[in-house]
Amino acid sequence: MLPTVAIVGRPNVGKSTLFNRLVGKKLALVDDQPGVTRDRREGEAHLLGLHFRIVDTAGYEDEDPQTLPGRMRRQTEAAVASADVALFLFDARAGVTPLDEEIARWLRSSDTPVILAGNKAEGRAAEDGLTEAWSLGLDEPIGLSAEHGQGLADLFQALLPHIDRANAEIEAAGLAHIEQEIDPDDEDALDAAPLKLAIVGRPNAGKSTLINKIIGEDRLITGPEAGITRDSIAVDYLWRDFENRERIVRLIDTAGMRKRAKVQDKLEKLAVADGLHAVDFAEVVVLLLDSTLGLEAQDLRIADKVLQEGRALVIALNKWDVSENGSSLYQGVRKALDEGLAQVKGVPLLTVSGATGKGLDDLLEAAFEVRRAWSRRVGTGQLNRWFETALEANPPPAPGGRRIKLRYLTQAKTRPPGFVLFGTRLDQLPESYQRYLVNGIRRELGFGAVPVRLMLRSAKNPFGK
Length: 465
Hints:
Layout: E1 4-8, H1 15-23, E2 41-47, E3 50-56, H2 68-82, E4 85-91, H3 98-109, E5 114-119, H4 127-132, E6 142-143, H5 152-172, H6 187-192, E7 195-201, H7 207-215, E8 233-240, E9 246-253, H8 266-281, E10 284-290, H9 297-308, E11 312-318, H10 326-340, E12 349-351, H11 360-374, H12 380-393, E13 405-413, E14 418-424, H13 431-444, E15 453-458
Parallel strand pairs: 1-3, 1-4, 4-5, 5-6, 7-9, 7-10, 10-11, 11-12, 14-15
Antiparallel strand pairs: 2-3, 8-9, 13-14
């Protein structure tokens, strides 16, 4: 656990830019147009030796609670309520607006301490705005520039007493933040480590609703509108498995991925790129299908992208509670997957419902199982005993009457599993024979339907030239 700081303010004052500055990475999407951020996004921030969790929130707007801006405002209010301190950001160049005054009234009525900061304060143009901010009744405003990194020392001084107080409370409760290094060859430690689980799929497949149901709270914004999610949002959850063990799952919600030709909007392009970036850092990816629409070509493209990145894949049919002809639909999707993803036949296919919670425990159990296979390492002795048997059952071909000699096989890496095949004349080994070996490794050595890499290494002839 870390002290939590929530950044709040009206749209387009630079909250996401400051968030990125404090976490040291461009995690949050940033654009000139207002209203880019919708869900609240969290990250670990470092500021001159201070270590805390920073929360980027949507721009605060005074709209009807049932509208999308109103649902975004509820997320912001929840972030402030759970934070140790709120950082109220306003545009120092634009000065105090009526919406800033409304936000200040709300923050003064909350129990969370507030730090007032004027962004875009580089140069003399911000002096009047900083002076005007005294009228908000939130003590002295700090002038800073999230874009250029100015004023961070003043921000440090303002945050320090709140962070120290929160750290003392965390230590007293025995919840101090401890980083643990995991040995990649320790299977038990890897199995107990937090699972990084990304949820991907087409727009409106129910990804955010599914995560909200798993964690039991409205953490992510949902609604009938397609494409609500923009940033990839990570949520940590403590799940109790079927053996009553507590397992940590980091659930990552991503933006809906439409066919590339249909993505014209700049923000949608950024959101899809952010989702693909989340896939790169996940261990297991759940491809969520809308069972009322079935399997489409775009679903197979997404699945193929996940497998090319070497991630373990699980496929889930969502909205199963409202689907029709369930048995025939399931069999049809299963057959289409085996044909469309021939390189990894047998990818787990489960039925779930984000609305009712059906099948969610089975989904998490399957994700842990497929990560176990994805992290599996086979000893060289066992591997080559299987290899000799495979060669006897199906010897390699002899193109042009010259024999291809396969010497031995070794596992070079895990996550995803990678194997190196040594021999002579491997440049002439047919793709079909390589697939025979990969399918055998997957089937006979316990790797299941995870992507397996096979690299070829031939000894160099010292007299070749």
